[in-house]
Structure prediction request, 205 residues.
Amino acid sequence: MNDQTNLYLAAGGPPRCRWCAAGADWPPYVDYHDQEWGFPVDEDKRLFEKLCLEGFQSGLSWRTILAKRVAFRQAFAGFDFKKVARFTAADVERLLQDAGIVRHRGKIEAAINNAQRALELIEEEGSLARYLWRFEPAATPDVLGQTETAASKALSKDLKKRGWKFVGPTTMHAFMQSMGMVNDHAEGCHARAKVDAALRKFKRP
Prediction:
C-alpha cells in the first residue's frame, strides 16, 4: 500500500520520495533521485567516490554535496583512489583553500586515509565492490525513515577495524542506499520498480 506521507507529489510529475522536495526547484537534484540513487554500482572508483561524498555530507545536506560534486571530482583527481592515496600534507593545505568543496580538515584527511585503506582492502579482497557487496542484506528490511541498520552497523564496524574514517553506521546506511545495496525508494515512488528491476539483473561481484 502506498503511503503518500513518504512521497513528494509535484504537479505534473510522477510521485517521488519525500526528500526530493528539498531540491524540487533544481533539476540535477531530481535527476539524481530518478537516475542514480539506489541503482546498483560495482565500479570501484564510483564506490570510492560515494563513500567519500557520504563522509563529506555528515552534518550537511545532500543538496550541498551534489552541488559541489564536480568540484570535488576535480579536487580529488576524479576520486581515483590510487592517486588520492599519494596526496601529501601540501595537498591537504591546497584542498583547505578550495572554496568549491567542503573545507573540513578532518574529512579531507579521512578521504586520503581511506584511499590508502582502499588499496589495502583491494589487495586483500580483489576489489572494493567484492568486499562491499558482501554486506548486502539477505532481504531488504522495512527501514524507511531509519538512519542506520544492522547491515550498516556491521559494515561500519569492519571498516573502522581496517582503519577507515568517517564511516559511522549512519553514513554507511546512506552509502548503502545510494549505491543500491538496499532499495529505499518509498512505496509508490516511480523509481522504486526501476531499481528493483536493476537489482534483479545486477550480477554481484
